């Protein structure tokens, strides 16, 4: 094993030096057994990581899955806020992330200090935060939400009470449109990958594939455009589906074989969709919509993580307790259908 680890190098900020072959898979299996670990992989991970994981899905579903297992160690192949959520929901377990530098542009788009200031300007408002936020932000939040239940969460708030929604402006716009609430203030944050899936790209792909269905994540910059095009009759409204990643997988199981489906989200999702419905032609709206942070979880990073117990993620108790309360407030409203 030592010789194998000596091959690991960090180049361009990413752990490299290992191919995801059978030898690698055997080593991962042995180390996982030795540590009594469970490997979780987000839908946006590279195929090799998704395939070797015990569970693949969205971040909240994975965190809840980890809490139900008897594993001592949770290895979260995703970005940092996801590993934090796993620690919040499983405080007695060791949580590892294969690369602690795997961050998130959306989670970074609002800090705890910024939210604290925003709250002070609207003291009577209820704060609804997307799960794609840091533990510190969750600790200042009244109710968390996922992309699949954001509308239900906001509708659970008294209609006369102002809502501060953060951090994703595109998901916030979707919620405002669906609820019809005028008293919702939206933070101007975004996921750089989803924001880059533009209206122009959507229009080009829809024109080139006039009979295709559209699976659109509400974080996307093209989400409002899809609604507009459907409203104008340019795209058949029945073809437009605004979905979380979990919702995309559910709908994929019902898709007709040989049908083309245009997918507007991070391209890692295509691996799961194609596995769920191999007869469907899933194509990305933007084939460059790849999150470099997600792709920092390489085969080499996972091997290092299990071999050396790095990198451990911890959340201070006083923050974790408050953050857990905001997650539990969401769960009390109803089971999240598909996470982010």
Report on this structure:
There is one protein chain. With 340 residues, this protein is of the alpha/beta class. Among the domains are: 9-102 and 293-314, NadA-like (Rossmann fold, 3-Layer(aba) Sandwich), CATH 3.40.50.10800; 198-288, NadA-like (Rossmann fold, 3-Layer(aba) Sandwich), CATH 3.40.50.10800. The chain has 16 helices and 15 strands. The protein has helices spanning 2-6, 22-35, 47-52, 59-68, 80-89, 112-121, 135-139, 150-155, 169-179, 192-195, 199-208, 223-231, 245-252, 269-276, 299-308, 317-333; strands at residues 9-11, 14-16, 37-42, 55-57, 73-77, 94-96, 126-130, 143-145, 163-166, 184-186, 213-216, 240-242, 260-264, 281-284, 312-313. A five-stranded mixed β-sheet has the order 4-3-5-6-15, sandwiched between helices. Strands 8-7-9-10 form a four-stranded parallel β-sheet. A hairpin with a 2-residue loop joins β1 (9-11) and β2. α4 packs parallel to α5 and α5 crosses α16. The longest helix is centred in the last third of the chain and has 17 residues, at 317-333. It is globular, with a radius of gyration of 20 Å. The two termini are 37 Å apart.
